[in-house]
Amino acid sequence: MGSTGAGVMFLYSLAMGWMGFFSATFLLFLVWLILIEREKWLTVGLVSVLGTLSLFLIFTVFLKVPLPKGAFF
Amino acid sequence: MDAFSGLWSGFALAVTPVNLLFALIGATLGTAVGVLPGLGPAATISLLLPLSYALGNAVTSIIMLAGIYYGAMYGGSTTSILLNIPGEAASVVTCIDGYQMAKKGRAGAALGMAAIGSFIAGTGGVVGLTFVAPPLSAFALKFGPAEYFSLTILGLMLATYLSGKSVIKGLIMAILGLLLATVGMDPVTGNMRYTFGLLILEDGFDFLTLGMGLFGIGEIFTSLEEKMKAELVTTRITNLWPTLRDWAISKWSVVRGSLIGFFVGLLPGGGAVIASLLAYAVEKRVSKEPEKFGSGALEGVASPESANNSAASASFIPMLTLGIPGNPAIAMIFAALLIQGVTPGPLLIKDHPHLFWAVIASMYIGNVMLLILNLPLVGLWVQMLKVPYSILAPVILLICSIGVYSMKNDVTDVSLMVIFGVLGYVLRKLQFELGPLLLAFVLGRILERSLRQALLISRGDISIFITKPISAFLLGIVGLMILTSVIWAIYNRFRIKPAASAKTA
C-alpha cells in the first residue's frame, strides 16, 4: 500500500506542473480515495469536489499563494 | 538585562493582540496535531514555515511555531488514553496505563491528570528556560570555531545514541544526513559537489523539502500499511478533576517527571520522546507497587506526560543558546529562525533580546491557554478523532505539496519531497530512526563551517581541537561515550553466550 501511495504521489508531483495544480489535485483525490482508501463512490465524489474547492478558496482566494497554473487550471 | 526585566519586556510584546492570537493559533494547532495520530509537530511546523515567512514578523511566527511544538505534547495524551494509539511519539508510554484507565471508566481522571501534569511541567520547564538560557549563552560566547566543532560532534553523538535501540543504525543515519548536507556549493571554495551538473542541486537540498518528505509524506506512506482500526473507548468524559486521592498518588510523579524531562530536554539530542520513556521507567522502579503498572496506574500517565512537556520547553535551551537543535521539531523552529534572518546561538539573546524574551513570555501564556484547551474543552478534540484518516491523509499530502512548492515556486521541489518521502518510508520499514538523519543534515553545515574555520585559524593543524580546553573536554566526553558502548557491547557478548549455551544444554 505504501508503495502505491508513493507512486501516485510521484505522478502527482509531475502532473501538477503541466496540468495545473487544481486539476491535478482533483485527480489525486479521486485516485487516492478509490485506489488506496477504497472509499464509497459518494464519499469519493464529495471529498474530491469539496476538498479541491476548499483548497482553492484557502490558498488561492484567501492566502493568495501562487500555485502552478499548467495547461488547464 | 537580567531575567526579570527581560521577561517583563517580553510579556509587554507577547500580550499584543496579534501575538496573543498567534500563540492561541499555535496552541490550538499543536493540540490538534497532537491528538491526530500520523501527523507530528515536526511535520506541522515544516508545513507552516512557508506561511510564517509570509507573516513577515519573526516574533509572531516563532511564537506560533513554538506553540505547535509544546501544544502537541498536551494533545498526544488524549489519543493515547482514549484510543490506545499514540497521538504523538512522545505519548507512546501513556497508552500503557492511560488506555487501561479509560477501559475501567477512569478516562476523565487520566485526561485531567495528564493535562494538569503537562501544565505544571510545561510551566516549570519555561521557568528553567528563563533562568538557565541567559547564563548558558553568556558562557557560550567564549566558544570559537574549534569549540563549536566539538560541541556539534557531541550533540550529534548524543542524538545518535539516544535515538533508538541500535546505535549502529543511528550512526548510519547520522552519516547519511551529513552526506546529504554536503550536496551543493562548497561554502569556502565555491566548487560544486555531488550536483551531477543538475541545476536544482546547486543550492543543495532544502531543509524543508527533506523534513516534509521524511516526516510528513513518509509517515503517511507508512501509516497506509498499519490500518488504524481503533475504537474510541468513550466519547463522554466525566470527572476531569483528579480527586484528592489521585493527587496524593501522583503529585510526586509529576515532580519527578518534570525534573527528568527538563534534564533530558537540556541534552543536545534529547527530547520529549526519550524523556517520557525514561520517566515511565523511573516511575515503575520507584513505585511501591510496580505490579500496578500496565493495568491502569495513574502514576504511569502523570509522570511521562509531565516529562514530555518539560522536555519540550527545555529543548529550546540548547537550540536558542548554542544553536544546536536537539530533535526534529526543534530543528524546524531552528530553520524558521534562520528564514527570518535570526541566527540561533550565543549571540541571539544579545542581538535579538525582544524576540528571545517575547517567545519565552508567550510560552507562559501558551501553557495557560493549553490547560484551558485540554481540560474543559477536551470533548472538542475527541470529536476530531472521528474524522476518518482516509480523508485526512490526502489532505495532509496536498498541504505538504503546497508548502514545498511555495518556497521557490518550483515543482521539482515537490518531486524531490516525494523522493525523500519514499526514502523515509523505506528507512522506517527497515527500522531506522529518522531523527539522527535530519539532525545530522541540519548540524552538517554548522559542523563543516566550524571545522574549516578552525583549520584556517590553526593553518591546518588539527591539534587545535585538543589543545583548547573546552573543545578537548567536549571531545573527551564523545570519546568516553564511544569507549563505554564498545566495552558494553563486548561485555554483553561474553555474558550472553554462556547463558545461551547453558539454556541449550
Distinctive features:
A: mainly alpha; globular; B: about 500 residues; mainly alpha; two-stranded antiparallel sheet
So what's the oligomer here?
Answer: heterodimer
Largest sheet of chain A: none
**Sequence of strands across the biggest β-sheet of chain B:** 1-2
Query: Helical amount among residues of chain A, as a percent range?
Result: over 70%
| Helix-strand string of chain A | HHH
Instruction: Return the domain count of chain B.
Output: 1
Shape of chain B: globular
The parts of chain B where pLDDT drops under 50 for at least 5 residues are none
First-last Cα distance of chain A: 29 Å
Please report which band the strand proportion of chain A falls in: under 5%, 5-15%, 15-25%, 25-35%, 35-45% or over 45%. under 5%
How would you sum up the major sheet of chain B? 2 strands, antiparallel
- Class of secondary structure makeup of chain B: mainly alpha
Name the structural class of chain A.
Answer: mainly alpha
Query: What is the count of β-strands of chain B?
Result: 2
The separation of the N and C termini of chain B measures 71 Å
Roughly how much helix do the residues of chain B carry, as a percent range? over 70%
The number of distinct helices of chain B, counting runs of at least 4 residues, comes to: 22
